[in-house]
Amino acid sequence: MWGFAFFAVKTMSGRPSSLFKIINGMRYFGVGTKVTRSIYKFPETYWLITRVVLSRDQDHGKVFGRLVWRGRAKESETKIAGPLKKEWSLVSHPNYGVFSAQNEQLQNLLPSQK
What we know:
Layout: H1 2-12, H2 19-23, E1 34-37, E2 46-54, E3 61-69, E4 72-73, E5 78-79, E6 88-92, H3 103-109
Antiparallel strand pairs: 1-2, 1-6, 2-3, 3-4, 3-5
């Protein structure tokens, strides 16, 4: 019991962890959440999670999202590579009081195109 509470605090504290451990337990399994890898050294570089397909144990699966690289969003949804690597951290999550994981609301979370 205490180990699980410590694990949850450790994961949400910003320390790098696997992507599945970060999104597991979130509403919509993290859809609408912004995550980044520790190897991304540029500001305003993160993934916006758009779709999650989990395995039965919820520690594996596929995560899809839109990459925002240096403040510019990519056009299409792609599969996020390396979700099991222990280098992911949470950037932000949407206000779940008004968020419903619809495509038009995900567009509002992306930066405006210049």
